Amino acid sequence: MIHNDMYYYDLIRYNIKKYREKANLTQQQLADLAGITMNYLAKIESVKMQRGFTIVIVGRIADALNIDIRSLFEPIEEENK
Questions:
Q1: 54 burial via Cβ count (<10 Å: 0-12, 13-18, 19+)
Q2: How far apart are CA 2 and CA 61, in angstroms?
């Protein structure tokens, strides 16, 4: 199946927020760990942002969360959509 671009952005933003909350981190704390601004992280997590983050940023966020980057590509459970 071929997904559109927004599918991947939504998937990554959903999982970043899920793992951040699971780690009991605020946006500011995660941003500091990933070396990005809290404003940028808030935009990444926002459904309003259409584009704007690279695989490097996704990798840095995964490293800051101490998870494998592949975890950020886990499918969204239907009940959480």
A1: exposed
A2: 26
CA 15, 34, 57, 62: dihedral to nearest 10 degrees?
A: -40
Q: Is residue 60 within 8 Å of 16, Cβ to Cβ?
A: no
Residue 39's alpha-carbon distances to 3, 28, 65, 71, in angstroms, are 28, 8, 18, 23
Residue closest to 26 by CA, chosen among 49, 11, 45: 45
Q: Could you report the per-residue pLDDT of 48-73, keeping only the tens digit for each?
A: 876 678 999 999 999 999 999 999 99
Q: Which pTM does this prediction carry?
A: 0.88
